[in-house]
Specification:
alpha+beta; Immunoglobulin-like; Na/K_ATPase_sub_beta; Na/K_ATPase_sub_beta_sf; disulfide bond; 14 strands; Sodium/potassium-transporting ATPase subunit beta; five-stranded mixed sheet; 4 helices; transmembrane; about 300 residues; four-stranded antiparallel sheet
Length: about 300
């Protein structure tokens, strides 16, 4: 057993009442240590807060600061699946109802009653036109109007005449859009050199053309006719640029509807769609950058 002397030793180390020492130090020493660490960590906190504030001052409220590092634009479609497949049977409604529901849900935001506020929306015409400049993006100008896009422009794929978007008849529709990028102005093709021969008639003024074709050579005669619905069968410039959620929370981008009217039945078909423009690029590692491909199979 430890002696009383030993007991007194560690007890005195913890607190020596005669000298007024705690853990071998006087109260004055502990006070100095406390003051040092308060000042030290206070300075660290000040540097951290100052750095964050300086960084926030470089950020814009209206557009992403590092937007130039984004490779524009993405091309996406509805309905969409994880494997980019649309497989269904015309005789089994449960196989295509999920696709139809996705289209119905998506098209609700383009209903006329959503776009009837003249303070938020304006008519921009049903023919391709030039960009709509609505002011300086960086200014605190408040909300700005956006162009209406009536879903009736999508014809047989609008869901107004055919609530099943062609799936019931084996003539499925896809709704295609360019993803939103703040202040992005897509530029139409400057020449036809990089455009496939069959897509050259689609090159018009003030429109970004969209063209779809077979991905594999063996499918060339199996795709059949593809109908395009929308303004100029592409993406018209008057809907650009997009001013961001602060200025245009109501913005709806233009759409193009595709309807595959005569697909070969009971066969997996791979289809590729591309948009063409001077500042539109492709990346084989990103299947939705300026393009997408999809597998479609309609079973009898």
């Amino acid at each position: 057993m430890p002696s009383n002397k030993d007991d007194g030793g560690w007890k005195e180390f913890l607190w020596n009442s005669e000298r007024g020492e705690l853990l071998g130090r006087t109260g004055g020493s502990w006070f100095k240590i406390a003051v040092f660490y308060v000042i030290f960590y206070g300075l660290l906190a000040g540097v951290f807060i100052g750095t964050i504030q300086a960084m926030l001052m470089t950020l814009s409220e209206y557009k992403p600061t590092w937007q130039d590092r984004v490779a524009p634009p993405g091309l996406s479609h509805t309905p969409r699946s994880d494997k980019a497949e649309v497989f269904f049977s015309v005789r089994e409604s449960e196989t295509y109802l999920p696709y139809v529901k996705a289209l119905r849900d998506f098209m609700k935001q383009y209903d006329d009653n959503i776009q009837n506020n003249n303070m938020l929306f304006e008519d921009c015409g049903e023919q391709p036109a030039d960009y709509k400049h609505r002011g300086d993006l960086e200014s605190d100008m408040g909300g700005v109007k956006a162009c209406r896009f009536p879903r009736s422009l999508l014809g047989s794929c609008s869901g107004l005449e055919d609530n099943d978007f062609g799936f019931k008849d084996g003539k499925p529709c896809l709704i295609v859009k360019l993803n939103r990028i703040v202040n992005f102005r897509p530029r139409p093709p400057g020449n036809n050199d990089s455009i496939p021969e069959e897509a050259k008639p689609k090159v018009l003024a003030n429109v970004i053309p969209l063209h779809c074709t077979n991905k594999r050579e063996e499918d060339a005669d199996k795709i059949g006719e593809i109908k395009y619905y929308g303004i100029g069968e592409g993406f018209p410039l008057q809907y650009y640029p997009y001013y961001g959620k602060r200025h245009q929370p109501q913005y709806l981008q233009p759409l193009v509807a595709l309807q595959f009217t005569n697909l070969t039945r009971n066969t997996e078909l791979r289809i590729e769609c591309k948009v063409f423009g001077e500042n539109i690029y492709y990346n084989e590692k990103d299947r939705y950058q300026g393009r997408f491909d999809i597998k479609i199979q309609v079973n009898s």
